[in-house]
Design goal:
Helix content is about 55%, strand content about 10%. The protein is of the alpha/beta class and about 425 residues long.
Length: about 425
């Protein structure tokens, strides 16, 4: 049985949740606490740890912020969610330092069930991965120095431009991931946005500054600690190229602006797991690189042996934990081999191409094209085309067209 505890000082809220989730009682064990002290006591008394805690922010005595900080330290693999009626962008920015996901009251029962179901599913993944605790504890991901300093300079300008700030953040995978998390939490269901620049505009200059100044959220990657083979600038330029290629491919197949922006976001974030393992566990990642070289393995095989998971799976896990859209998470998790997606999800992806390619397909092809002509990548380490996936989509003949499309004009160079 999956286990979740709800914490709120308003009895009507707890009763409403109990009623709305009544149909899940045979699958989930649900506990309800009227204050933080009682919640911690119930968690301590429980025979098994709770998988998820859902807490209000503002409660008498110990508030949600302090409660979730305690849970973070004491129960590191419990998914931490905020459910609050006072969720403007400023409050969401504050909550992003200690909560994995933030939901607004009143929360539609279907959305709450969907978020809880996704959170419960995380317990089935990365069971033997040494990065698992780090991923649960992570509130931010280190950024490439080039972009980080450019952002600081613009924010500290006498007249900072929110447009320029959005354009800068849109080029950095780490900052973009956090901005998308905050925007989806603060504005889901109230504002329409599909791009990272739109998300920055909604969050606003004041709150972007708050994210930048908050310890552990927007931080600078320390290149001196990375394995010799890891070049942050090259990783960054590759992410930008994949993002642009993915968007071009998506635009060629349909005119759905939301999905085209989704393809760009997923392409930018596709190697976020690589950035995480390289900066958080550089020695172990160096072992994976050496294993790949000495045994003639692919990087994916070497990562499986060293981490029990690929960088794609680890990146997808973190962004799923943060509540990013499912299509983006799927594109990141399975971009190396889309046909390896779990059967049920894969069937849904094939059905839901929205009269064109999905973000997953666009990112998979974009990554292959970006690496194929890169002479600095060893042949055995380059991404391969998943021909099974293209055949499933009846799109095997589209590859040459996508090649011409992506290399017809140069991609953006932010250096």
């Amino acid at each position: 049985m999956k286990r979740v505890i709800f914490v709120d000082d308003e009895p009507n809220v707890l009763e409403g949740i109990k009623v709305s989730l009544h149909q899940m009682r045979d699958e989930w064990t649900m506990a309800f606490a009227h204050d933080a002290v009682r919640a911690l006591a119930m968690m301590e008394e429980a025979e098994e740890p709770f998988d998820v805690i859902v807490s209000d922010m503002n409660m008498p005595g110990m508030g949600g912020k302090d409660l979730l900080h305690v849970v973070k330290e004491t129960y590191p693999q419990t998914v931490r969610m905020v459910l609050s009626g006072q969720l403007d962008a400023e409050n969401v920015v504050q909550a992003a330092a200690f909560a994995h996901q933030i939901l607004r009251k009143p929360c539609e029962p279907a959305l709450l069930r969907e978020r809880l179901t996704r959170a419960f599913a995380l317990n089935n993944y990365l069971k033997n991965c040494p990065m698992r605790d780090d991923l649960f504890a992570m509130c931010g991901i280190p950024s490439v120095p080039t972009v980080y300093w450019k952002l600081l300079n613009e924010i500290n300008d006498e007249k900072p431009s929110i447009v320029k700030i959005g354009e800068i953040i849109e080029t950095d995978p780490s900052m973009s991931a956090k901005v998308l998390q905050v925007a989806h939490a603060a504005y889901r269901g109230t504002h329409n946005f599909s791009s990272i620049v739109d998300a920055v505009n909604l969050i606003g200059l004041k709150n972007i500054k708050g994210l930048v100044l908050m310890p552990g959220i927007f931080e600078l990657a320390d290149g001196s600690q990375l394995p010799e083979e890891v070049d942050l600038e090259r990783m960054w330029k590759h992410a930008l190229q994949v993002a642009e290629f993915a968007k071009r491919i998506s635009q060629r197949e349909h005119d759905d602006t939301e999905q085209n922006d989704e393809a760009y976001s997923a392409g930018l974030l596709h190697d976020i797991g690589l950035l995480i393992v390289a900066t958080r566990m550089p020695d172990k990642f160096a072992d994976a690189i050496e294993l790949r070289r000495s045994r003639g393995m692919s990087l994916m095989e070497a990562e499986k042996e060293c981490f029990g998971a690929t960088h794609a799976e680890m990146g997808g896990f973190l962004l799923d934990l943060w509540g990013l859209p499912e299509h983006v998470v799927e594109a990141i998790s399975f971009h190396l081999y889309p046909s390896s997606t779990p059967d049920h999800t894969y069937r849904m992806l094939l059905l839901d191409t929205r009269d064109g390619v999905s973000a997953l397909t666009a990112v998979h092809i974009a990554n292959y094209l970006s690496e194929d002509l890169d002479d600095l990548i060893e042949e055995q380490a380059k991404a391969k085309v998943d021909h099974i996936h293209l055949a499933d989509l009846n799109m095997s003949d589209r590859l040459s067209d996508w090649w011409d499309l992506c290399f017809a004009s140069p991609t953006t160079d932010m250096a």
